[in-house]
Protein 1
Amino acid sequence: MSDFLGKGWAVFAPEPAVRDWATHALVGARRALKDPDLARWYQCEETWFVGLDAMQNDACGAVAGSAPLSGAAVDFIAAHCGGWPALHKGQLSGVFPGYPRPRAGETEAGFRYRRNRDAAHVDGVLGVGTPKRRFVQEPHAFILGLPLTQAAPDAAPLVVWEGSHLVMQRAFAQAYSGLDAGHLAEVDVTDAYQAARREVFETCTRTQVHGPPGSAYVVHRLALHGVAPWSRTAEAAPEGRLIVYFRPPMPGGVRAWIDAA
Ligand SMILES: [Fe+2]
């Protein structure tokens, strides 16, 4: 636990129950990748499948005939991340050789940020308007990642800046200090967020988070994270690098998102 609170992420070693879940989920994932109704999720010249709500799991995480999702990561979240909630439909994040290519409508600076900075972001901090201003509007309780395929560690892995959640927590606490808890989602946090991100890039170690099917990652809700480029020589299963993510909403909203451990 202290490790998670210091680093902002943890990888749980492969275990049979999670491996079994991932085997079933892969069947559902293959279906989703071919579903014409979900074709809009192919982005960046088909090198990325965004896959929001693409998994057809139930509230216990059961999918394509699997048992409910269980294991050490689930137990950890239940004990340390505010309890184990009913689950939304999982995000199927698929990345394929050649990532990143420019996303439709992306500026040159945006693409550079994707290629050189892994499109690093904190979940829930949404950009609104042009030029973009930032607001915390979809605060999540945690990020749980479940790899479905074998992929090399440099096949577009999840990257997390170690300790970045502490920098973000400080920055947001300051931006919101003295403000009414009911209106925090309307507070423009652009400047505080950008300054905190700069501090993270200068002071925190960028870490590749990787594991085979059967393992699980938990990322702190405030951690700066992104997706690294697919390195030229990296190999992966034919389906690509597939990870299912669960990011349930934070009970207590923005105030709790800042204040909880
Ligand atoms: Fe994210």
Protein 2
Amino acid sequence: MLELTLNRVDKRFSSKKAVNDISARLTNGVYGLLGANGAGKTTLMRMICGVLNPTSGTIQMNGQEIGRMGERYRDLLGYLPQDFGYYPDFSAQEFLWYVGSLKGLTINDSKRRAQELLHTVALQDVARKKIRTFSGGMKHRLGIAQAMLNDPSVLVLDEPTAGLDPKERVRFRNLIADLGRDKIVILSTHIVSDVEYIADQILVMKQGGLLMTGTVEQLTDTMKGCVWLCRIQAEMVEDWNNRYCVSNLRNEGDEVELRIVSTEKPISNAASVEPTLEDFYLYHFQDEPT
Ligand SMILES: Nc1ncnc2c1ncn2[C@@H]1O[C@H](COP(=O)(O)OP(=O)(O)O)[C@@H](O)[C@H]1O
Ligand SMILES: [Mg+2]
């Protein structure tokens, strides 16, 4: 069993506190780091990958501080940065061979792993095609493949679904769900549906801190009794939008059915409904940028 522990991790950039007092214990499984833009997800991931040092606090892998482990930690780690650079003139396989050599794999190992991973991410048919001809989704899958070249125990993926179309999103989810069995997989996103089905645990970040950690069920349970369906006249919608956190809206003739997240019953005929993770997110992030 792997164990990654964050103990009161802080990161300050001059006066700006990007990450604020985060503690967590991560074992095998898929973790979703969910938060609005600017919440501190990338900064936290860069510290987990040893690219940035915490201002204070410690990060340990199986009880050892990662900064002291050096090469031994990097050998355990796979990382897809948010702003990952590709080499457009490389073919997919050349790119993986190149990354393999950077990671210290022998040429033979690089070639063998590259071929396996191209299958894993379903790019085997375009292995010899140049990256410049790839769609966003194909590039992302190649990015995931490069992060997995050294068969990492800790796989960190920063916004891996950004720019993917719905079909590519589903494919990506299926790929990740399989990996959590023998690894710690951490992926960040500001899109609820990306983590709703595949994350064993969700870490919700807000303004540098951890707002809440739990399974989807644990998080949605905190909204029980706070989600309502109500019907109102169409001309009232704007007013209600200003007064309440509206998570969905459906036109029904002259009337509109609103889904509202509110600790108080908004109108006498409102029906209480089961909360979703989307409701949870909207409620906590209604004033945040997306
Ligand atoms: N190198 C840096 N120097 C100064 N401020 C930074 C730096 N990196 C990030 N920040 C700030 O820290 C906050 C968190 O950023 P980031 O970790 O990129 O958030 P996220 O990935 O959740 O969008 C933001 O306000 C951002 O502007
Ligand atoms: Mg980011």
